[in-house]
């Protein structure tokens, strides 16, 4: 019988921190023999727990005792065969699972609205992306999931594909038909990977959409810190079935992970798993009841709309994550970016992100009633202040994804130069450019630069979005005059 009240790694770490060790190892603070601002605020125990794999605390790269046991408990909690603690975030988990399953020039089917870490994995691995265009809501300016039919078409056109990656769920809560896609992919010999950066909560509640492991996927990358309760940057990579070479996966993880993994991050994963197994279901249920209680109040606010399961079904998708509170605010006569800033600056409310027409709030097992009350009151006040505004003009987003010229890895290693954004039309990008959050690239290495991209870049920049690029106002492009294309294939 699995005992989820245990925290094997954290328990051993506490014992080590309190047994009066004479520390002739790293870290340099020697288990907290210092006085600084962080100690004053957070306390000495923070540093006492910051040990660096001493004798008895196991080794993350080859666990044999307490880390091994903690990972086994994590696997059981998530209905997986194996679980790997990731202290390099879900980005590290995603890079590891892609590098372990597809090699250079091998094909992987995936949505185009993937996180930048997936593009980075394509650069590291040299794999060939077969992009599926996701469902695009041209009037809200957001990308949703992929349809089963679009996957079948990609599979028919690329029968030599080795893997498929599914986002479960998208940033805005929509889920694709992960069960059907996984079943068909396995019938054709594909390994199925899931990006569950925003789906860790699925494993702890029957009120939420199906998880990747329950759907039969082979690998899944989970951000326990996003919708669970661990510290930021702590994540988990789950493995199920025997379609993936476990030794290759472990060696790939060891290449990506730090050789000095944070014991604080691992302890937070260990304790979060215990907390979520024992109390997560109850906490999520309570939060969803609170959402239901205040949803009618939100919907009654003039010029405020809520996206929910009805929205997902209207777009042809099977489910919607109710822990995503997606609020359409454009009828206030304000952009989502403006409402985002108003909520933060004038009401001390931090929402997850903004888009032109929307804001997104994340609900977890730890969202409480005062959170909902504050949000309702703030939006009601903003609505009253904007009662004479005209709604935003209905902008129809082009949201077209650029044509691909070459693999991301080839473009990344090609000779390059920098051009002003407005002068880069029809050039080939040598970098990823994205809005953060959510970190989905508008452009990736190897794609042509279109007028639509240039217009979108300028629009987001004017609206105060954080644009990640190598040089503000400029773009890194392939220097085709000095590029021997054939030698780079």
Quick overview of this protein structure:
With 489 residues, this protein is an alpha+beta fold. The protein is built from 17 helices and 20 strands.
Explain the overall architecture.
- The protein has helices at 8-17, 37-42, 45-48, 66-77, 89-99, 116-125, 148-157, 178-187, 212-215, 224-227, 246-256, 263-300, 309-314, 336-347, 369-385, 408-413, 451-462, and strands spanning 82-86, 107-111, 128-132, 136-137, 142-143, 163-167, 174-175, 191-196, 219-222, 235-239, 305-307, 319-320, 324-328, 353-354, 358-362, 416-420, 433-435, 440-443, 467-468, 474-478.
- The chain is of the alpha+beta class and 489 residues long.
- It folds into two domains: 8-276, 3-Layer(aba) Sandwich (Aspartate Aminotransferase, domain 2), CATH 3.40.640.10; 408-488, Ornithine Decarboxylase, Chain A, domain 4.
- Helix 4 (66-77) runs parallel beside helix 12 (263-300), helix 5 (89-99) crosses helix 11 (246-256) and helix 14 (336-347) packs across helix 15 (369-385).
Key descriptive features of the protein:
single chain, 489 residues, alpha+beta, Aspartate Aminotransferase, domain 2, Ornithine Decarboxylase, Chain A, domain 4, 2 domains, 7-stranded mixed beta sheet, 4-stranded antiparallel beta sheet, 37% helix, globular
